[in-house]
Design brief:
Strand content: 5-15%
Helix content: 40-55%
Structural class: alpha/beta
Oligomer: single chain
Number of strands: 6
Number of helices: 7
Number of domains: 2
Order of helices and strands: HEHEHEEEHEHHH
Distance between the termini: 42 Å
CATH class of the largest domain: Alpha Beta
Length: 172
């Protein structure tokens, strides 16, 4: 979550099919206030939702005939799928992926932990995106919505304050 926030990634989709977990606020260091955290009960529902939103499903794997990170095309929306270091990605993700991506590795080790892999891939993709002609920035309306969501998550009793404000509007 923190890595997503650092690189300006707004949506983090997490599949909690096997291990549901709460967000550890000490690890997130406040990023949970800014990043939209979308939870899914199954890989199938996550992939379906992302494809419906126009995302390419990109499976990160050191195997298969994967594209090297430096050759990855950032011109189309993409959702990166990361697997557990011990098991990798499920067969379902690999079968439903639109593409495969790998980080060049030159030693004997074939994997990195998920946070390192995510940081390397996001840093590369975001840098390529910023160097491109693609209009990647949030609109003023999108920025406003994110700030309002942050305020709702941050201010104690936000729903009550909003309700009082709405009631006051009707009286004027």
């Amino acid at each position: 979550m923190r890595t997503c926030d650092v690189f300006g990634i707004q949506d983090l989709n997490v599949v909690e099919e096997n291990l549901g977990k709460r967000v550890d606020r000490e690890i997130a260091m406040g990023a949970q206030k800014w990043v939209d955290f979308n939870r899914f009960n199954s890989v199938k529902s996550c992939i379906s939702d992302l494809k419906d939103k126009g995302y390419r499903i990109i499976a990160t794997t050191p195997h298969k005939n994967a594209t090297f990170l430096q050759d990855f095309d950032v011109t189309e929306k993409a959702a990166f799928f990361f697997g557990k270091e011990t098991d990798g990605l499920s067969d379902y993700v690999l079968e439903n992926a639109n593409g495969f991506l790998k980080i060049p590795m030159y030693g004997f080790t074939e994997s990195l932990n998920i946070s390192v892999s995510a940081a390397i891939i996001l840093q590369s993709a975001v840098t390529k995106l910023k160097d491109s002609e693609i209009d990647w920035k949030l609109s003023e309306e999108e920025k406003y919505e994110i700030e309002m969501n942050w305020l709702r998550k941050t201010i104690k009793a936000a729903p009550e304050i909003i309700e009082r404000y709405r009631l006051g509007e009707n009286e004027v």
